[in-house]
Specification:
The chain has six helices and eight strands, in the order βααββααβαβαβββ. β7 and β8 form a beta hairpin. With 128 residues, the chain is an alpha/beta fold. Helix content is 43%, strand content 22%. The chain is elongated and about 55 Å long. A three-stranded antiparallel beta sheet has the order 1-3-2. A three-stranded parallel beta sheet has the order 5-4-6, sandwiched between helices. A two-stranded antiparallel ribbon has the order 7-8.
């Protein structure tokens, strides 16, 4: 599940009009970015702040929050077992990497809350 929402998705979760959401986007109150196709996307956390600022019920948006976990291990069986355990919980979004090089690439775009890290990886020490 992505942590980016379209204005239409926000209207469904908050039960507000698209006009209200777009007015907030155009005024800068609700920051939005455009993806490659030109579609506006809004960070989940910004949508939650917007809901709270306008005394809207943000429970539906809060349920979208997932804890991101990155598993970095070169042992594929262990890595897959951890991913299975982690993703069995609906509130966890897990990704895996098999090396430090791959982990660095994933870190920049995935921004995990937690990191499960093998200390001895083929391309270096997991602590560095």
């Amino acid at each position: 599940m992505s942590e980016l929402l379209t204005p239409s998705e926000i209207t469904r979760y908050l039960h507000v009009s698209l006009g209200s959401v777009m007015k907030a986007v155009h005024s800068g109150e609700l920051p939005a970015t455009e993806d490659e196709s030109g579609c506006r996307k809004i960070e989940l956390e910004n949508a939650i702040e917007f809901a709270r600022a306008h005394s809207l019920d943000a429970k539906a948006l809060l349920r979208l929050r997932k804890q991101r976990v990155l598993v970095v291990d070169d042992d594929n069986d262990f890595k897959e077992m951890l991913l299975d355990v982690l993703t069995s919980e609906q509130r966890i979004w897990a990704k895996a990497a098999g090396s430090l090089f791959e982990a660095r690439r994933v870190l920049s775009e995935f921004r995990p809350h937690y990191l499960i890290l093998d200390a001895q990886l083929p391309d270096g020490n997991g602590w560095s």
